[in-house]
Specification:
Layout: E1 40-42, E2 52-53, E3 60-62, E4 73-77, E5 84-88, E6 96-101, E7 110-111, H1 112-123, E8 136-139, E9 148-157, E10 170-171, H2 189-194, E11 198-199, E12 203-212
Antiparallel strand pairs: 1-2, 1-8, 3-6, 4-5, 6-12, 7-11, 8-9, 9-12, 10-11
Length: 213
Amino acid sequence: MTTIPGSRLYEIFQGTPTTVDEVVTILGYGPTGDATARRRLVHPDAVNFPPILYWKMPDRTFNMDNEALRAPIASVLRALQGSQVVRFEEVVADVIITEVWNGGDTEFSMPAFQFRQLYEYLINPPEWVPAAPIYIQWSPQDKNAKTWNVELVRMAVGSGEATAMFDVTEFFPPGQGAAQGDPLAFLDDAFANEGSGLIDRTVTLVMKLVSEV
């Protein structure tokens, strides 16, 4: 076997140190929100898209509590002296919020007017202005007293399959007025004025946090 010697020159330059402030997050033991408060979405274009005050609250909410629930990004790598954990702290802008309203053959998820309000926000995002971006604002007041800039990412009614994203069937109970046993008779003016019915499939809304307001 012939061995051909060779060499390579490596230059080592002094780097610039970077200082990172460490932030300690304390959730506390009790809730910081008001369990009786309703959540709110506010669009910058209030003329065409009035604020949404959730008529029905989600049955499940993922990644939000007293604070946005960030998941540390960590992995274990092999090293010469044993395995090491490489860890990156997730920031608020990495957090995805998912709200779920359960629905099915025996349960209504939400009024149809609430679905239409949320859908309008989904398909009409604020105009993007790079120099001064503006966002829809979300206030989960039942969870905490904070308001967040968000981007709505996805919405589904029913299975959420690619060709069947919105399984919208609006149910209108029979009867007129409480005397006839109308289940909608006790509800607020949105039903009476808009003639809205009820959605009988699970509704899922996904949004990305951008920053705290």
